[in-house]
Amino acid sequence: MNFDFSDDQKQLRDQARKFLTEKCSPKAVRVVLDGKAPYDKELWKGLAEMGFLGVAIPEEFGGAGAGHLELCVIAEEMGRANAPVPFSSTVYLAAEALLIAGSEAQKKKWLPAIASGEAIGTLALFEGKGNPSPESVKLTAANGVLNGVKKPVADGAVADFAVVAARTGASGRDGDISLFLVDLKAGGVEVKSLANLDPTRGQAEITFKDAKAEPLGATGEGWSILIQVLDRAAVLCAFEQVGGSDRALEMGRDYALDRIAFGRQIGSFQAVKHMLADMYVSATLARSNSYYGAWALSTNAAELPEAAAAARISATQAFQHCAKNNIQVHGGMGFTWEFDCHMYYRRANAMALGLGSLSYWEDQLIDRMRKKNAA
Amino acid sequence: MNFDDNPQEAEFRATARTWIGANAPKQYEDELRKSSLGRTQLKNANILEVAKAWQKRKADAGWACLHWPKEYGGRGSSPIERVIWQQEEGPFGLLSRMFIIGHGMCGPTMMAFAREEHKRTYLPPLASGEKIWCQLFSEPAGGSDVAGLRTRAEKDGDDWIINGQKIWTSGAHYSDYGILLTRTDPTVPKHKGLTTFFLDMKSPGVEVRPIKQASGASDFNEVYFTNVRIPDHQRLGEVGDGWNVSLTTLMNERSAIGAAVATGFPELFEYCSSLMLDDGPAIEDRAVRSKLANWAVKASGLKYTSMRAISALSKGERPGPENSIGKLVAGSMIQDVATYALDLQGAGGVVSGEDGELAGRFQAMLLRAPGTRVEGGTDEIMRNIIAERVLGLPGDIRVDKDVPFNKIPTKGR
């Protein structure tokens, strides 16, 4: 048994951390946060050159063909750096959907473009409030065109293409949902940026009016593909959340060592120490659950659905816990725009919702555990 | 990243499984599997006798104290083999509970500090369960503050004379030997005047009084020493170096990893899976599912944290203070899980023991849980350990650190 990343994978982590420390400083993140750019294009280009965008894309489609453990390692560093790029939408959602359900031609068209940084992709699933469910998909597909509105769509305003969930049957049950690929630069597509909790990753409303679309996967298979995509993305996002948790914990720890009050480092007060210890505990549990998710993802194990839900819940809780208590340790300074704490707080809370909220994943976890116990 | 055995590990597992299959006391398997958390009892048998018989059988076949050297009664196994053994031993491993302190802490301390002839005399019967050991550290005046202890050891020729009182000594009432931490010099700061010994618990002047706990059980004891004589050759480490010796003992406590940490979660999940509430099955209730999911990820997080620790151990890394989280998280989780299970039972949840739901399983868990959060270091001490040793935060201010022990105030107000 070896329940850890290999030395090569750890080297990749060091390489990614070094790269992101240089190219993705909090100052660089603030350019996007302050609305001066929709995402960090220089960083995106650099990530492509480093091979990080295509790390899990097979070589025949222009990727590095390393695998999903390597992608987990990169994801953790992306979360740590709070990178303001459409990485999760493009790499975890769009690329994974293509890998699972894409035809040879679709893979050849889009995957090399993703790996080289030329194409940004996203998943258009939600239609307003609520969690993933076949019933919530109202957008229709008929005669090769889509009609309806999706929001929020992560990175929708900068994406070149989207994987869109549409209704192809009458009832709205899972067999009536199908997936489509849409070129967002083509006609019949209107994109509007939305204000959102985390401006370092944009959200958009996309209106489809007789927009041309090609099927991704078989008709009626959309929901089962989506569940696989969401599970896989849940593990990858969990690593981003773990990276973010660790960074928020470090920031809190460093500040507690630096800041003097009542004549002592505030980190010597037990109330502060214990708060930081609890942050460490939640980050550690999240990391361990995420490692299990990584193992299941990389081996395509039967345990993946349960492992993904556990990683998702644990990492969401940890990142929210660490991000909010990092601000608490910082006191008044913690909620100023000037300090970086709020960037992680925003990211933590936006990420908690993007693939469906905690209550959705709690339901998924319990259903999956019951199924396993019944088997 | 993988969970697969390598060929040697697979072979070890197969051998262990075969031997356990042929030798374990299977008549108790079901009862052990369903035993209440934190307390293992058998209805129609004396648990101590069953445990001793199983340990002896293991020892005779070379399966006792796997990680100990062979010459002291162990097997010289790797950490991974020890974990594989625990996985294969399953519920029969619960029978080892009475040996945990001896095998996990006293044995390793003897190995590090005792004379060679003592090791050869005392360790094999400890490994085989013929002799049981306890650890005499805590005192009424020093629980979390172990170094605040007052039990005196005074030199008298080639012997030491011990006077004082210990408390919270697990298993002292059936122990044959104990490791004892004493104060040999009260005129120096508290950590510097301590000395460690081992002694025969049947020595004249040793009196053991079981403590009845909130749960009704008596797992712990008070131990009184009145002019107890210990020969100097039973001293472990140098005079005045007892604190360092005891740290070795406590470090070994942490390395006793690998066994699944009890959290109460599997019990609660099983319960909720079959429980009917007024408006339908509990497992389909949104609030119940939310609670279960939150505890599920804590339980799995602990399980995989332990797997990571085992992987580190197998690469030759030492277990570090980060392993404190198992006890910290599981301790309060057991308490919360039990409280919630009783909440689901409503007014009927007050009924305990054989009269209660599931023979009072969760009621027993509730009453035992406070102990789990205190023994081996309170939640607060665990958090301090994480904050100071993992995160590098400053230590608590210790006003008695440089004060001679006999000048430290002993009463508030």
Automatic annotation (TrEMBL), chain A:
Keywords: FAD, Flavoprotein, Oxidoreductase
The keyword Chloroplast appears for this protein: no
Single GO term (MF): acyl-CoA dehydrogenase activity
Domain Acyl-CoA dehydrogenase/oxidase N-terminal, residue spans: 6-118
Pfam families recorded: Acyl-CoA_dh_1, Acyl-CoA_dh_M, Acyl-CoA_dh_N
Residue ranges occupied by any Acyl-CoA dehydrogenase/oxidase C-terminal domain in the UniProt entry: 220-357
InterPro entries noted in UniProt: Acyl-CoA_Oxase/DH_mid-dom, Acyl-CoA_Oxase/DH_mid-dom_sf, AcylCo_DH-like_C, AcylCo_DH/oxidase_C, AcylCoA_DH/ox_N, AcylCoA_DH/ox_N_sf, AcylCoA_DH/oxidase_NM_dom_sf
Cofactor dependency: FAD
Domain Acyl-CoA oxidase/dehydrogenase middle span(s) in chain numbering: 143-210
UniProt similarity note: Belongs to the acyl-CoA dehydrogenase family.
Name of the protein this chain belongs to: Acyl-CoA dehydrogenase
Lineage: Bacteria, Pseudomonadati, Pseudomonadota, Alphaproteobacteria, Hyphomicrobiales
Automatic annotation (TrEMBL), chain B:
Single annotated GO MF: flavin adenine dinucleotide binding
CDD domains: ACAD_fadE6_17_26 (cd01152)
All residue ranges annotated as the Acyl-CoA dehydrogenase/oxidase C-terminal domain in the record: 240-391
Record bears the keyword ATP-binding: no
Acyl-CoA dehydrogenase/oxidase N-terminal domain mapped to chain residues: 52-130
Family annotation (Gene3D superfamilies): Acyl-CoA dehydrogenase/oxidase, N-terminal domain (1.10.540.10), Butyryl-CoA Dehydrogenase, subunit A, domain 2 (2.40.110.10), Butyryl-CoA Dehydrogenase, subunit A, domain 3 (1.20.140.10)
Top-level lineage group: Bacteria
Keywords: FAD, Flavoprotein, Oxidoreductase
Ranges for domain Acyl-CoA oxidase/dehydrogenase middle: 134-228
Cofactor: FAD
A cellular-component GO term for this protein: plasma membrane
InterPro entries in alphabetical order: Acyl-CoA_Oxase/DH_mid-dom (IPR006091), Acyl-CoA_Oxase/DH_mid-dom_sf (IPR046373), AcylCo_DH-like_C (IPR036250), AcylCo_DH/oxidase_C (IPR009075), AcylCoA_DH/ox_N (IPR013786), AcylCoA_DH/ox_N_sf (IPR037069), AcylCoA_DH/oxidase_NM_dom_sf (IPR009100), Mycobact_Acyl-CoA_DH (IPR052161)
Pfam families linked: Acyl-CoA_dh_1, Acyl-CoA_dh_M, Acyl-CoA_dh_N
TM spans (from-to): none
Family of this protein: Belongs to the acyl-CoA dehydrogenase family.
Protein name per UniProt: Acyl-CoA dehydrogenase
